[in-house]
């Protein structure tokens, strides 16, 4: 019974680490970064260990799911304890193949971010920054592990304040506005999520996700209402056009590690929620809203790409590209087919890896040239051929080159939409594919402005060499990009049972 | 089976590995690249010798509903094309160290060429459309990085972006076509897709969409515009792109999926129109170029029109045969052009190089003769096969393709002769042949010499097939590789041969009349228009590029104003509401007390009412 222990440890380790680091005196700043990195490494180790001992079936012996007479989701590990019995609150954690890749992504990216914050601190108080990163990790992991709607909501909220602090404390010149926008948007979404959760819990009499999955306990009208609330809440987080305007601001102003975690894992809580809660708990709501969701997703793809094409700032361009990429993920979810869900799962992970790498690289470039304006950059391949090469690699991965990670999510989303058939979904498939060509256009424009041409003053004076720690943070992400591109089944195979279950409910 | 799997994997792996080799280890990079390509050539040759179908696949990604597989499917034609690809790539790899002497980025260059080769071989052997797509687009990427290789050329990055982007636009169609076929058949395996019976509408739609992708890769009108600009890349890369990879991929994929195309008359008609337009547009544009490489580039566009034209008249075997001979003589021509450029230091036709560079002259003459279709050089036989197929084809499409092809024959002979005369005959020119071009930056022909053996070897090695490969049509085993019909050379041969002679004589006469001047003077006022390829670029810029850019700006502004503005407006409204409430709270003490007491009263009442229940 090591599984439940590991599950709790996965949340406890970064939480304890954050507390320890926060308690360190300010003069031990570097040591704090080291401690945080150590705890993040332990968390990664724990998440890796969770792979072993996954035994679908045995974990459910004592769950409410079996008593409800429903086949439970194929959870690998599960913790279910009474929390506040008077309020019927239970603390339920559950790990399955849908959440596991995201859990791994979170622990990997947090470790890389802590390492980065430790070795290349963006200003002073880097230990506090590292502690905040660990708190964000706790929140995000909690969302992915939550086996209960209330727990899900609580962890969804945990992420907000530390991310606000990261942006407001270590961000660029316009950080206050960006942080405020982020917080207000997120709070708006949270309120709706809370109402949605309460509606569902009141109507179903249970908050257990395994029980709720399939929507059997909820009448159609409740599902429609609850899904509307969920959809808006998750659309803010994902973000889905037109609720995205916090994202470019936050990304552009956030420090490198903040951008990486924001794009890499935090956005995924939105799309994960849409799958786990939106499709899982209120499948009829999602089915009813699918055309609208699909249209908005494709609008996000096209608008995001077009805006990118006219962007003049490096980080803001990458941020807007996220809007397009998450559009593909949401298009996949909107189809609610196995292909679409697999597209979403692959797109989520690929976006986390590739955009994380892009933000690390953009941070490295901005750190050296002190500018992110595309007009002042240019000729990067002369002083820094390897950095330029890696930026090119990340960009082509992001534009969806087949054979690299970004391709699968986008291509399968198109396949899923085409599978549904009919004029609407075929049009959406075509437009999404056109969005892929637009993505190529804006990334190639970016590379032409950044890598090629004659070096301007900002670039020719830069130090083209990368520190060892930078290679240490970039190399795993680059390797993952190639690995996932060649072997996408690494992500979809674990999720297979869950995807089948979620979409089987849909077919009923 | 292992040989077929290793065929793309070996060069691709060598390419990825080569990217990690430090820049100073030139020899390591060269050894890795040449070794891997030679290994690929050996594997491909072995597959041809084995002469049987190899099919193997395994599940790659199971997404429920459709199974995406990874595997190889080697037919004799595929094996033959693999040999061609590997042979041209090997020639390029051997040639490149000499051509790029003193270039400190030779290492990544060689690695990228290996990756390019691997990607093309993947297209050749892939048994699944998704796997094919991987090779297909990785090629686009490789062409992009290689065209942008030369940092001294200001236009190189733009040309590189254009190459990737134009082909990528075609690939939107290709991806959608693949998706339609795969979703319809429930499998993306080529064999399953070919075996499935589609309804006519789907078949037509998928065929047209695939055609868009092929038009991008194989430089068919109207997506051919990237190919002439791609000349900004190093010359060996041009040889690779024009002969063995990229442009060959499109024609090959059409031949491989031919039964699907042939199932729809609309698709075939569209193919015929595109082929005829491409063929003539390329041939006429080639007549007015001053840059050696641009003449060759437009000639590739035109020759690709011959190949797609052959497909349009339902002769995939003839198309593949022309593809193979074209690969040999076009790679040869580019390597020879590279030798000239290397020697004189400029891209314009210098004149008078015949004595200074006898080997280059000889191989160029062979290559240009094959291009023009002079018997008994390779191009003569393959072009003859294509023409015979077109002449026999029924309907208006057959007539269209055949007449376009016939018209193309003298034009091809004309520009090939012009290229030969202006480069190798007459006095060495210091002034440019054209009125509006920049003067050559270089030393004059007198100091020019034939290239060193590392570059001369590949040229000579390619000259042999460029000369005699056409005769293979008389060998039954060769024909069975391609599924080619036996040749029937009858009186019909006389017409294209006569047209070739006429075209060549026309160029020669123009050259003599103007005392070793440019025969293109005869084009008169058409010349500038032909030189820019009929202005298709300008049309594309006006119809696609500028509107999209404007739309992008408008969207960015609208996004900032509408979405951002709405959010900011909500924020302001809430702030104002807050200020108003604050003002209401800042009341005098008696009023505040009144409000507070009223609140207490209300609460008490509420509790009393609620408590009773």
From TrEMBL, chain A:
It is found in: Endomembrane system; Membrane. The chain crosses the membrane at residues 6-24, 31-52, 98-118, 127-144, 150-170, 182-204, 224-243, 255-277, 289-310, 317-337, 343-365, 386-404, 424-444. It is a multi-pass membrane protein. Its main location: membrane. Coiled coil: none annotated. Pfam families: Proton_antipo_M. Residues 146-432 form the NADH:quinone oxidoreductase/Mrp antiporter transmembrane domain. Keywords: Membrane, Transmembrane, Transmembrane helix. InterPro entries: NADH_Q_OxRdtase_chainM/4, NADH_UbQ_OxRdtase, ND/Mrp_TM. Belongs to the complex I subunit 4 family. This is NADH-quinone oxidoreductase subunit M.
From TrEMBL, chain B:
Residues 126-402 form the NADH:quinone oxidoreductase/Mrp antiporter transmembrane domain. It is a multi-pass membrane protein. It comes from the Bacteria. Keywords: Membrane, Transmembrane, Transmembrane helix. It is found in: Endomembrane system; Membrane. Its main location: membrane. InterPro entries: NADHpl_OxRdtase_5_subgr, ND/Mrp_TM, NU5C-like, Proton_antipo_N. It holds the Pfam family Proton_antipo_M. The keyword Transmembrane applies. The chain crosses the membrane at residues 28-49, 70-95, 115-148, 169-191, 197-216, 237-255, 267-288, 295-321, 327-344, 356-376, 396-416, 459-479, 491-511, 592-612. Gene3D superfamilies: 1.20.5.2700. The keyword Mitochondrion does not apply. Residues 60-107 form the NADH-Ubiquinone oxidoreductase (complex I) chain 5 N-terminal domain. This is NADH-quinone oxidoreductase subunit L.
């Amino acid at each position: 019974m090591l599984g439940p222990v590991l599950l709790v440890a996965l949340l406890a380790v970064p939480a304890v680490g954050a507390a320890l680091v926060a308690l360190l005196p300010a003069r031990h700043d570097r040591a704090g970064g080291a401690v945080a990195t150590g705890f993040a490494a332990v968390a990664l180790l724990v998440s890796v260990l969770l792979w072993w001992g996954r035994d679908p079936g045995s974990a459910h012996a004592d769950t409410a799911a079996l008593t409800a007479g429903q086949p439970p989701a194929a959870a690998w590990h599960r913790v279910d304890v009474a929390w506040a019995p008077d309020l019927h609150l239970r603390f339920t954690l559950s790990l399955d193949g849908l959440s596991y890749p995201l859990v791994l992504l979170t622990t990997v990216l947090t470790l890389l971010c802590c390492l980065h914050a430790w070795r290349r601190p963006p200003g002073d108080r880097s230990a506090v920054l590292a502690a905040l990163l660990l708190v964000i990790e706790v929140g995000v992991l909690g969302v992915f592990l939550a086996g209960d709607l209330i727990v899900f909501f609580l962890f969804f909220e945990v992420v907000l304040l530390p991310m606000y602090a990261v942006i407001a404390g270590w961000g660029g010149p316009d950080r206050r506005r960006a942080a405020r926008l982020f917080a207000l948007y997120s709070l708006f979404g949270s309120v709706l999520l809370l109402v949605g959760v309460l509606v569902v819990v009141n109507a179903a009499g249970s908050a257990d996700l395994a029980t709720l999955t399939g929507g059997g306990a909820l009448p159609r009208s409740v599902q429609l209402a609850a899904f509307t609330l969920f959809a808006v809440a998750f659309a803010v987080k994902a973000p889905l056009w037109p609720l995205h305007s916090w994202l470019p601001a936050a990304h552009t102003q956030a420090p490198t590690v903040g951008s990486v975690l924001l794009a890499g894992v935090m956005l995924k809580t939105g799309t994960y929620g849409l799958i786990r809660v939106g499709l899982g708990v209120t499948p009829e709501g999602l089915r009813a809203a699918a055309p609208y969701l699909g249209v908005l997703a494709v609008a996000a793809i096209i608008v995001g790409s077009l805006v990118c094409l006219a962007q003049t700032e490096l980080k803001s361009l990458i941020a807007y590209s996220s809007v397009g990429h998450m559009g593909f993920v949401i298009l996949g979810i909107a189809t609610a087919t196995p292909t679409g869900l697999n597209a979403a799962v692959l797109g989520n992970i690929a976006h986390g890896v590739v955009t994380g790498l892009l933000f690390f690289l953009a941070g490295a470039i901005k750190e050296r040239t002190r500018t992110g304006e595309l007009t002042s950059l240019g000729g990067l391949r002369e002083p820094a051929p390897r950095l330029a090469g890696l930026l090119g690699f990340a960009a082509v991965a992001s534009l969806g080159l087949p054979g690299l990670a970004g391709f699968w999510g986008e291509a399968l989303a198109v396949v899923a939409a085409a599978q549904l058939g009919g004029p609407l979904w075929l049009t959406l498939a075509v437009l999404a594919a056109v969005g892929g060509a637009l993505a190529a256009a804006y990334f190639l424009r970016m590379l032409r402005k950044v890598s090629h041409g004659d070096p301007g003053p900002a670039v020719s004076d830069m130090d083209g060499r990368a520190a060892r720690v930078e290679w240490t943070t970039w190399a795993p992400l680059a390797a993952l990009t190639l690995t996932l591109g060649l072997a996408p089944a690494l992500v979809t195979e674990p999720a297979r049972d869950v995807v089948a279950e979620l979409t089987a409910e849909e077919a009923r | 089976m292992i040989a077929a799997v290793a065929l793309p994997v070996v060069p691709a792996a060598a390419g990825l590995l080569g990217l990690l080799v430090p820049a100073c280890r030139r020899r390591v990079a060269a050894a890795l690249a040449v070794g891997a390509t030679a290994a690929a050539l050996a594997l491909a040759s072995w597959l041809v010798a084995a002469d049987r179908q190899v099919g193997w696949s395994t599940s790659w990604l199971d997404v429920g509903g459709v199974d995406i597989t990874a595997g190889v499917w080697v037919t004799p034609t595929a094996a033959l094309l693999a040999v061609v690809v590997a042979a041209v790539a090997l020639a390029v790899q051997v040639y490149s160290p000499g051509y790029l002497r003193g270039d400190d980025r030779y290492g990544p260059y060689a690695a990228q060429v290996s990756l390019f080769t691997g990607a093309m071989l993947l297209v050749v052997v892939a048994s699944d459309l998704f796997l094919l797509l991987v090779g297909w687009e990785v090629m686009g990427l490789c062409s992009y990085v290689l065209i942008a290789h030369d940092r001294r050329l200001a236009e190189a990055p733009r040309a590189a972006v254009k190459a990737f982007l134009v082909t990528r636009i075609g690939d939107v169609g290709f991806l959608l076509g693949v998706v339609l076929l795969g979703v319809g058949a429930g499998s993306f395996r080529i064999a399953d897709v070919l075996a499935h019976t589609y309804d006519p509408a789907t078949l037509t739609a998928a065929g047209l969409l695939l055609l868009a992708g092929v038009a991008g890769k194989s430089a068919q009108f109207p997506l051919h515009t990237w190919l002439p600009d791609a000349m900004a890349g190093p010359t060996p890369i041009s040889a690779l792109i024009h002969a063995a990879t990229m442009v060959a991929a499109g024609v090959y994929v059409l031949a491989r999926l031919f039964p699907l195309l042939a199932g729809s008359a609309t698709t075939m008609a569209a193919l015929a129109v595109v082929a005829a337009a491409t063929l003539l547009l390329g041939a006429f544009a080639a007549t007015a170029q001053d840059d050696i490489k641009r003449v060759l580039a437009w000639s590739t566009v035109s020759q690709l029109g011959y190949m797609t034209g052959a497909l349009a008249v339902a002769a995939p075997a003839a198309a593949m045969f022309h593809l193979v001979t074209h690969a040999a003589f076009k790679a040869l021509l580019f390597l020879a052009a590279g030798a000239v450029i290397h020697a004189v230091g400029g891209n314009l036709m210098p004149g008078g190089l015949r004595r200074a560079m006898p080997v280059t002259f000889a191989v160029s003459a062979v290559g240009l003769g094959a291009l023009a279709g002079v018997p008994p050089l390779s191009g003569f036989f393959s072009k003859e096969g294509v023409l015979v197929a077109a002449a026999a084809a029924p309907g208006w499409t057959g007539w269209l393709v055949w007449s376009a092809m016939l018209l193309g024959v003298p034009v091809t002979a004309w520009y090939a002769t012009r290229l030969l005369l202006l480069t190798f005959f007459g006095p060495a020119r210091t002034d440019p042949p054209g009125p509006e071009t920049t003067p050559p930056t270089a030393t004059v022909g007198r100091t020019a010499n034939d290239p060193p053996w590392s570059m001369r070897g590949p040229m000579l090695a390619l000259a042999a097939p460029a000369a005699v490969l056409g005769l293979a049509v008389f060998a039954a085993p060769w024909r069975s590789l391609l599924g080619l019909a036996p040749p029937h050379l009858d009186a019909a041969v006389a017409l294209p041969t006569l047209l070739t002679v006429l075209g060549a004589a026309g160029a020669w006469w123009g050259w003599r009349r103007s005392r070793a001047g440019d025969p293109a003077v005869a084009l008169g006022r058409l010349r500038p228009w032909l030189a820019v390829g009929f202005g298709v670029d300008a049309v594309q810029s006006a119809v696609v590029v500028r509107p999209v850019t404007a739309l992008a700006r408008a969207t960015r502004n609208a996004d900032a104003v509408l979405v951002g503005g709405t959010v900011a407006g909500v924020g302001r409204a809430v702030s104002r509401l807050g200020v108003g409430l604050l003002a209401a709270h800042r009341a005098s003490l008696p009023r505040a007390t009144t409000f507070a007491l009223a609140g207490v009263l209300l609460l008490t009442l509420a509790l009393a009412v609620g408590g009773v229940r």
